[in-house]
């Protein structure tokens, strides 16, 4: 006997919910970020992360499994060739949900769900920039001290 999915129900039948999540995942992979309700974003996150993990494996079996959910071959191709390689070193956490307040018409809580860009690479770049700044400050501090010792040597 089928059991209801864990998490908040999105209304309608189980088939409607499955198709809704598949369409949200398709839009997320197509555009990189989508604005939706918080409940839909929370339900979409594990679906999208599972699809990206399957795409990272890259074999034909996983491609067929992803095609069961996302039927657009162009978006599946993009997922396997562009999106999945971006996260090859990342063990999970491919999406980010940001709350953006309530919708004007019905006061529904809204959120933006987006694919996380290479955060690991950004952290390394920031660390390199901070190290370069520290080196520059240290060299600037040493330069006046060296000039002062040269001036003292000339005066003596």
From TrEMBL:
Can you cite a GO biological process for this protein?
translation
| Segments traversing the membrane | none
Which molecular function GO terms apply here? structural constituent of ribosome
Q: Where is the composition biased (Acidic residues)?
A: 142-156
The record's region (Disordered) falls at 133-156
Give the InterPro entries listed for this entry: Ribosomal_bL17, Ribosomal_bL17_CS, Ribosomal_bL17_sf
A Pfam family this protein belongs to?
Answer: Ribosomal_L17
Q: Could you list this entry's UniProt keywords, alphabetically sorted.
A: Ribonucleoprotein, Ribosomal protein
In the UniProt record, which is one GO cellular component term? cytosolic large ribosomal subunit
Name the protein family.
Belongs to the bacterial ribosomal protein bL17 family.
Q: How does it assemble?
A: Part of the 50S ribosomal subunit. Contacts protein L32.
Which protein are we looking at?
A: Large ribosomal subunit protein bL17
Taxon lineage: Bacteria, Bacillati, Actinomycetota, Actinomycetes, Kitasatosporales
**What gene makes this protein?**
rplQ
């Amino acid at each position: 006997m089928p059991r209801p999915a864990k998490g908040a129900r999105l209304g309608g039948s189980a088939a409607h919910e499955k198709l809704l999540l598949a369409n949200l995942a398709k839009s997320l992979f197509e555009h990189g970020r989508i604005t939706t309700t918080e409940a839909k974003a929370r339900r979409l996150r594990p679906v999208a992360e599972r699809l990206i993990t399957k795409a990272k494996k890259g074999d034909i079996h996983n491609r067929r499994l992803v095609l069961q959910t996302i039927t657009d071959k162009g978006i599946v191709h993009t997922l396997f060739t562009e999106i999945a390689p971006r996260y090859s070193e990342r063990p999970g956490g491919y999406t980010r949900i940001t709350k953006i307040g309530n919708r004007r018409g019905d006061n529904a809580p809204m959120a933006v769900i987006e694919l996380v860009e290479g955060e690991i690479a950004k952290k390394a770049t920031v660390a390199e920039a901070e190290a370069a700044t520290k080196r520059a400050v240290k060299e600037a501090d040493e330069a006046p001290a060296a000039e002062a010792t040269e001036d003292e040597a000339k005066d003596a």
